[in-house]
## 1
Amino acid sequence: MPLRLSRHLAGVAALALSSLVTMHAAHAAPPTDAIDARAVWQERSLSACRSEQSSTAPDVCLLRTMQRSGARPQAIAAARMLVKADKAGFISAWRPLGKAALATVTYPFRANTNEGSLLIGSDGAAIDVDENSVRDEDRATPAWRAFAAAHPDAMPFAPADFVGSTATSDGGQRLLFSTSLKSCHACADDGALLIAYTVDNTGIVRERELLAIK
């Protein structure tokens, strides 16, 4: 069965809530576009889209290049959703994670952090695991306060790495992601943020939890 992505990925930020109730509510809107592994596009040259002489906006140029290169309809649909969310990019890889999936997004026009990750549940909700990777509730924990005191300039740097999964007692799974914490792109890591997303036995992402700062 194909997974589905919500039409407006602008709502991704709303899915970054940690409580079961609020995350369940964020998944309430029914999806409208079927997205599966066919959404992957193998990038062609986008140099013309990056040119200062180009009279076409980069996002429009991206979609046009994808169409001209014979990209699948699913890939173009996913790119259009990203453009609507003001995140011009395309799905460059797809990885099944049990009942959910992980879509790697390439952002070709960003100066830094050209990759990101979307965790996609079976209900179609897309969670940007790199968006606001340190939440207010995380900053209130003793672990974060201790880390921030020792490394006041450190911040999370995307993309998050999928590092494994564990089974839950109800037939679901916990998906683990690690994000580097450092003070600049070229700097050595000061630590890493370990986050778990709980997926129920139907494939719906139910909960996010900060597990550790290591």
## 2
Amino acid sequence: MNMLVPHGLLPRLLSLLLLFLLWQLVTMAVSGDTLPSPARVFAFVVDEAQSGDLVHNVTATLSRVFVAFSLAMLIGGTIGLTLGRFPAADRLLDSWLMILLNTPALVIIILCYVWLGLSETAAITAVTLNKIPNVAVIMREGARSLDPQIEEMSRAFRFQRRTWVRHVLLPQIEPYTVASARSGLALVWKIVLVVELLGRPDGVGYALSYYFQLFNVAALLGYSLVFTTVVLIIDTVVLQPLEAYGRRWRPVSSAA
């Protein structure tokens, strides 16, 4: 069995199967319009995929997620490393970071649409601004946790800047980078849906808004499940292996 099913996958599959069974049992006790059955939701997904609308909307949302996520990781990571390495900069900008971190996402989205118009630029900017402080806070902690003994060794051997970045900085902050990426992915796609709901002509958020006006619960569940599945696949296939790779050099305690 271990050769056929990856480690830890079988319990997850059984858990999902149990969830769908419970869903089916609940639908037998309530109105079909209130909570459609899994078969009805699946039928909607198939029809929407055949029409091309599902692929178009999911692709539009994924493209926005990718652009905003990449910008937020780049800008937020740079800010976080700077604050973590330079205490003076941290004292100066910490309040700014906290203000942005605690500003409601909806406020930032509305302001971006007011200032930049109902455009793709405004949408990407709003999502990026919402994600930057989260990345910066995590990466700041990573920069603060650099091993001073390794730092001293690099100075003793007079590492060049490139060598220091490759062999001292990156291995130690990689777990923090992956942690911010995993938490950020879940945050970014949720904010993208709100951005699309308020001011975009396509995407999963737009589709949810459209079917909400039609009170089509099967469509709402269908789009939600499809996009959640896509995000989970990205996390499982890309981010979790990166996290394991980033922690490869850390000592692992042996089991008794």
